[in-house]
Structures are given as C-alpha cells and as structure tokens.
Amino acid sequence: MYPRNPWPTAGVCWKCQWQLAYSSPRLPQKLARRDGLAPRSALSPPRRAFHATRKYSKPSLAAATASETPNPALLPGLGPQNHPIREHLQLWQQSFGQPSEETLRAFENFPVPSNIHNDVSRMNYSAKADEAARDQEDMDEEGNEGEDLITIGLFLEPGDAVELSTAGREPVLAVFVQQFNDLSQFLSINGRWCHSRLATISFAIPGCIDPKLLQPLLPYLPTNPLEAAPKGEVQVPRDAIGPIQDILGRLTGEAEHIYRSNAAVLDNAYSKLADPTRTRMMTLTQIAKKLLGRNDPAWTPSSAALLAVRKALHQNVFRFRSDNRSQRLTNVFGIRPKNDVQVVESVHGWVREYQEHQALIANTSARILPKPSKQTTYIADFIEKACRLIAISRNHREPNAGFLGPSSRRLPLSDRSSSMQAVWGEEFTSSDKEIINFLQAWVLTKQFNQMNSLHSACTSILQATKAYDDKINHYEENRMGQSTGHLFLQEIGVLTPHENRAIYDEQLMLPTVRLSRNLELLNTKAELTRRSPDFRDSMAKLRRDWGTTNVYCIDDAGAKEIDDGVSIAKIAGNDEQYWVHVHIANPTAFFDKTHVLSGLSAHMTETVYTPERAFPMLPPWVSQNYFSLGRDRPVITFSSRIDLSGAILETKIQHGIVRNVFNITPAELSASLSENTEVEVKRMVVGGEVPLQEAKSTGPELSSTQVQELRDLYTVARALWKGRKAAGGVRIGIHKTEVRLFENLGRAGLAWTPPSVDRARLVHGDPIIEVSARASKSSLENEIDSRNIVEEVMLLACQSAASWCAKRSIPVMYRGTIATSSSDVKDVEQFRQEVVNPYMDKHGQLSLALGFKYIHALGRAIAHSSPLPHRIIGAQSYLKVTSPLRRFSDMIAHWQIEAALRYEAETGKTFDSHAIANTSRPILPFSQRQMQESITTLSPREKIISQTQSSSTHFWSVQAFMRAFYYNETPLPETFKVMVRSLKLSPTEASLAADGYLTDLNVRVILRPADGVVYQIGDEWEVKMNRVDVFTRIIKVDPIRLLQRDPDFV
C-alpha cells in the first residue's frame, strides 16, 4: 500500500498535506523473509503514484493556471472532501504532473500524455552506488578518454547484469540497457536509471535478463544522458521494471544466502590465500573454487557464488587489489603479501596512537605530560627529521603545489660529469623506512585510493610538519592530498625533484614497483642461464640460406635491438610484380613458451620506452648477443608477391639465415634516393643547450644495384599505400611529441635513480629537456615519402602473416577494428564516398573536424583470436609479427606459425587447425581457449603500457613548460595556437571545456570555460597560458579569440 498521512487533514490544503506526508523521515523496515531474500523494500523502490517529482515554483504554477482553466475538483477545500484521495491525486497528476518540455528534450521516446498512466514510481534517492557512479568518474585524475569502450564493449550486451560500485558504498546490481557514445545506460535493482563509462564496470554476468524485458522500459529512459537528471521528473513504470527487479532481487538474495552460509570462510579469505612475501595473482573463479569448492575439481561457481566472493573481496579492498581499467575483462586480483599488509597496518596504528597522544597533551593541564608510547615516538621522530630535511630542501628548491621547482644551482654538462649531483643526508631508521613505504604506497602506486582512513593517516603526518599551507596544497583540492604527499617525499629526499609517477603503476609491474617480486625472481633465473643459455634451433632443418641477398635494416643510428630487415626481388619477365621479403628476428625457434625467457617476456608484455629510460622485455644480452638482426643471424621471413596496384598475389613464410646485412638510417635512405625529406620541426629547450650530435654518417657505400633495389622498395611502398588508401585506410597526420633528456654529453636519457629509502638524497641541478614535434598540416595525410617505406613494408608483412594463419585457422592475436556506438556515422563507406572524398577533391586535404570524425567512424582497434578487418589500416586481416624482441604477442604468433610449418614439413599437408583438433597430442602451443585467455591478459597490459609511454612523454613536456612558464628558463610567446580535439561535456552545460593540443609542439592542453565561448571540434583558438600543473600533468589555457572554424563542416 501507499504511505498514509499521519497528520490530520482538516483545514490543510492538499499541497500542504502532500508535503507534510512525505517530508517526515521514514524508519527502515527490518522484516526478514522466510526464503532468505532481502525484504521487499530492499529490492524495489517505494511505490508512489506520480511521474512528477519536481517542486514547482509559484511562477511556474501561476503560468500553468493562467493558460488553462483550473479543474474545480483540485481547488483547495473541494478536493479530498468530494473525491476519494486516489481519484483526487489522479486528477492532480493529469493537470499538473506531466513532465515539462524542457525535461522531455532528454527523453525523445517518451509516450504522449494520453499514454501516461498513474503507475510510475518516484525513486527513493538515498545514497546508492548507482547514484554516485557518474560523480565519481568526474573526479578521476586524467586520461579517461573512453578507450576501454572497445575492449569491454565487446562483452556487454543488453540484458547483461553488472555490478555498480563506488567508494564507501555497497555495490548494487543493475542491467545494461543501451550505449550512448562513451556512456552506458543501466537500470539498477533500486529502479533507477543511471549512466556510467564502461571502464568503471568491474564485473558482469552475461545474458542474465532477456532483452525483451527491456523493450517496455525504453520510452521512459533518457536518449540524451547529458541533459537528463537522475532525480528528475521521468522515471520508469513499476509494471515494466518489476520483472527485472525480481530477477536481480533473486540473484542478490541467493548471493546473500551463500555469503551467510560460508561467512567463516569468506571473512577469512585473505589469511587463507595470501603468501607471506609474494604477491599472488588469481582470477575470481580460482578464488571462488579455493574458498567454496571444497576441493572438488569439477565444481564451478555460479553467478551468485561469484557475487558472494566479490562481496568478501570488496570488504578487503586493500588486501585484494584489482585494476579497474581491465577488471571486468580479466577478473584478476592481486593478493598482497602478508608482510606488506602488516607494514601498512602497523604504521596506520602508529599514526592513530600519535594522534591520540597529541589529543591527550592538548587536553592535559598538568605540568607532567603523559609519556608517549614507542609507536608514538616513531611518528614523532620521523616528523622531526622530516622538518629538518624540508628546511634544507627549501634552501635549494622552491615548493609548489605538488612539485618542486628547479634547482638554484646549475651544474655544467661535460663528458665526465652530469648536470645533476646527489648529496646524501641523514639516514632513515627502520621505522622511518616503514613510514616512507606507507607514504609511497599512497602517492606513487596509489594503493590507498578510495580508502579514507588510510588517506587520513597519511595527511595527518603531513599536517604535523606544519610545512604545507594552502598555497602549497594542490590548488584544485585546496586541501592536503596525494599531490602534497608527492611534494613531501621529494622534499625529504626520497623521490627525485622530477620523478615520473607514470612508471610506478602497480599493474605495469616494472622494476620501479617494489612489489614486483615475480619480476625479480624471473630476472634472477634468466641471469643464471646467461653463461650457458642452451639455445637449440627447432627450425634448423627448414632454414634457407639467403646468401648474397641484400638485406636492408633501416633504423635510427642508436638502435640497439634490430627486429627487422627487408629485401626485394623483381619477378623475371614481369616488370610490374615483385617479391618483397621481410626478415624478422627469430628468438622463438630457440626456446619454447615454457622457458624462463618466455615467462619474463610474458610478464613484461612489451619493452616500455620512456624519455628517461627503456625497460626491455628481453635482457639486452639475449637480444643483442643472439637474435638482433646482423650477419649470419637466424630469421623468419614473411614473403609477399605484389603488383603495382598494391594487391597481395601470393604469400609464404620460411625460416632462414641472412648473410649480407646493411644498416642504414632513414636520412641516409632518403639521401640515396636523392629525396629531400626535411620537414619543419618546432623545438623548445629548457635547462641549457642540447648537446651537439656527432657528425652525420655518410652511410654504407651502395652500388648501383643496391640503389635500384631501394628505389624498387620505394615504388612498392607507394603501391601498397595506394592499395590501402583505396580500401579505406588512412594515415594519421597529427605527429607525436618527441622528448629528449640530457644529464651528460654521452647519450640521451637519465641514470636510474630509484626512490631512496635508506638515506635522504638532495639533488642539485636539473636535466636538459628538449620538446619537439613535426609540423602537422592536416588530421590525415594523403601522400607518403621515403621515410614511410619501412612502415608500409612492415604492414605488408603483418597482412601476409594474418592471411597465412587465417587460411589455416590458426588461433593468434589478430588485430582489427569494430564500429562503435559513439559514432553517428552508420555507413562508413557511404560517408567516405559522399562526404570525405568530395571534401578532399575541393580542398586537397581534410579539415581537422572532418578528419577526426572520419577516424572515429572507422572504429577502434581490438585484439581477437579470429581474423577481422582493420578499417584504419585498410586490411582484411592483420597480425603483428615484426617485433618479437620487443612484444610478447609477436612471440606467440611466431610459436604458432613455427609449429604449423613443422607439421607441414613432416606431413606434406597444409595445416588445418580444425582437422587436427581431436588429435591426442596438441600440435599448436596455444589452443583456441588458451589464445583467448592470452588475449584477455595481454590486451589490457598493452593498453597500460601505451598509456604509460604517452603519459611519460607528456609529463616531461609539462616539466619543460613549468620551468619555462614559472621560472623563465626559455622565452615563451605571449599567446599560443590550440586545436580543439574533443569536448569536455557535463549534464548541465553543452560544453564546459575542451581538450586540445598546441599546434607547434602537439602538447595536450585543456581549454578552460569562458563566458560566451562555445568550442567546436577542429577549432583553432588563440589562447594564453593559465596554469601548469606537473603533478596532474595538466596545462590549462584561457581562450582569447577564435582563429579558424571549418565553414563547410561543423
């Protein structure tokens, strides 16, 4: 029944009666049901009979009555006395309760008023996870551009149940309804609709609800999420949402029953699963089997069981860490070592005792103060030491919000000396080290995110130093947070003054992260094999000797790992066809997937490149001494016969040994072809002059035959690009920013300086930073030059490898693209023919706005175990195979291919994965299921690595601008030109701000909102720099005037 009014109604108008009835607080019902489910009130919203929930102001009410004749039954004193209350309220609803036109702009499918019935629930808006989901996303630090949409969107269909969660609130179940751009629409068990990015969804149950049950809901759900208010007037009818709530309620009830029945085990999950010293990685299913399976190997957890286990893990979020960026895809949890958890809990306890002691002192008037405990002394002594170190640091560097300024001393750069010098200070005690590790977990690896008590303990240490006032605290937070903690660790000499936080991501598991003990173990085992690696060539009998064939390795002069080379041969008697051979380093023929080097490669996933240093996937002694391309080195060769239209006529894969190898740089290649490829490059340098590079090498002496081969390669490259372009392929015209760092004259990069937890380290001097970028004329490029030869030939090898594997149904990590719901282009080919091509014919190149729209319409890349088209490249199928020394997925492809080649050599038959599926002994190292599991594991890591490399480059760019903007280390122009790349939208305004990049250096910036300013994608604005924030890696600019907007395409 509906709630009854406990107040007397005589003499009280109907409006006041309504307000009195529903403004009083409600007590929760605690009635238990026999079936073990939660009470009905917990599974469904309170039943009310009104669409309208908005409080109308008097002017709007007056306007309504002025334009319409009032219903006499609704006049004060006439309603309830003459009509039953339900009938009276129905009349009121018809006259005043319809949603306004402004509200319905966000609900394009909302039924006309004649179809609206008095059965729509107003939801109980207590604080729930579904309500806070969107707000939490808006607080994320940076970098969320919806990229996870592709990886995760593949596995989310209407009717899938998901778990919505946010900090400090119990997760709730919801059902996925539909997708709007980068926002997903859900309907929760509480009856509310809400919107969230797919990247925030950490768990899903496929096919939980029949999509047909969702159809009646669609008219009552927003079609424009950015304009719809979750607490607005339009909600979903009870009769439509009831079946869905019942299904989700039963699932929730079953999960609660399982949890209660196994509470003793689930509440002690950590003590049963954790290792004392090593991080354990387990999937949710493995954890459920370990806790609930009762040692039955055949037992499989139900969806409800998985929910029950997730609830237990959610209550121990620090002990069971997960990566929200990929959690729903991988369902992997990292179980922290007991020793590390003990340290955190110990320091947390010390801080509490210190706070209690300080409070006791403040409230004690006696002359004899209470004696502090040993734990209190640990914190007090550390704070006292920190204050001394901070004072010393501030004699040399100025503190800012989240970062330190440049050194007051500049050291000369020479062959023997560095521009940076470390001066060692006080030693840290064992208790100091534990406190420092506690703070590093908060700041660097962000282990305490959404854990308020641990966050508070960290900030209380900083507050006790009394060294950080509002001017030093982060300007946007206006309170102590991780940015202040980062500054504190720099000032006490733990972190360097220019520490790149991006490389400390726990999920990277690089040597920078203290918890990467698995990596330490793998490196130790790999080093033990160095004296006697015992490499045996599994393809020795199938190798071809390439003899005098000229193999050209085209790479930068400083390249250490040479993955690939290329050779070319004309078809005899046919001047329009060529054999193009791409020779790739071949480590996989010498060790299998069980080798320690394979384990190390799988852990690293890829070589990680940052401006300061590289973290190689394989140890340098392996790649450089055995497998990097050179004379007499083993190779796997991907050969393609093509014609001058760019069509691939024939492919083959063979193993061999190359003898005649020529190393040549791109510049030397262009010079050999008598082509001038110099382009305008913009540069900004802070900290001094960039060390002069050695005189340019003249390159190898090339014969006329070799020069002709290079010309033939150029001819082939142009033909390949022509073919890809005809197939819809594109070339991105926005060039990446390049950053070089120098601390000595010998080479670019910085020496490895891990956090100093033994002694305080004061760093004098700063590195020279060079930021540069090639000028970008368009979002897409239409032509190529000799610098693109290697790129086109490598793409050819990847297409040929994909075609070869697809023909044999070999499961590998294919790459392709899928269309996204965030694009409003439904037919890409039609859009290209009717919009893109005519624009190109008229203007010669695409505008930025049209270019961005076209690129977005082509879809985004994904990895899959079966071949699929790659629209951006313009290929029917695509498989990365050209970098086995730097990318583990390429190694997997090589292992699969080599197994198939050995099978074909032994049997004389073409390999067919389906035909040999039932053999007693597997032929391929990776089955279809194992390949899919590998993709699920590797894809998120590849994305994290890509983001880390991009963030690292951007961090050093922001460092350079900080030193130029605040400390005048190099002149900056008064204004800059910025291109708008994307809009930052909110539910209340069409465009609050915009993301863009500086046209000269391609550095990302945020255009701040301004009165009367409306940004459009592709705009060019003149801006003035407003703020440079090194901690968050953000540069903010203010718009001055619009310089250019595409008149033909907005």
TrEMBL record:
SMART domains: RNB (SM00955). Residues 543-903 form the RNB domain. Residues 32-68 are annotated as: Disordered. GO terms for cellular component: P-body. One of its GO terms (biological process) is mRNA catabolic process. Residues 48-57 have a biased composition (Basic residues). SUPFAM superfamilies: Nucleic acid-binding proteins. GO terms for molecular function: 3'-5'-RNA exonuclease activity; RNA binding. It comes from Massariosphaeria phaeospora. This is RNB domain-containing protein. The lineage of its organism: Eukaryota, Fungi, Dikarya, Ascomycota, Pezizomycotina. It holds the Pfam family OB_cyt-4.
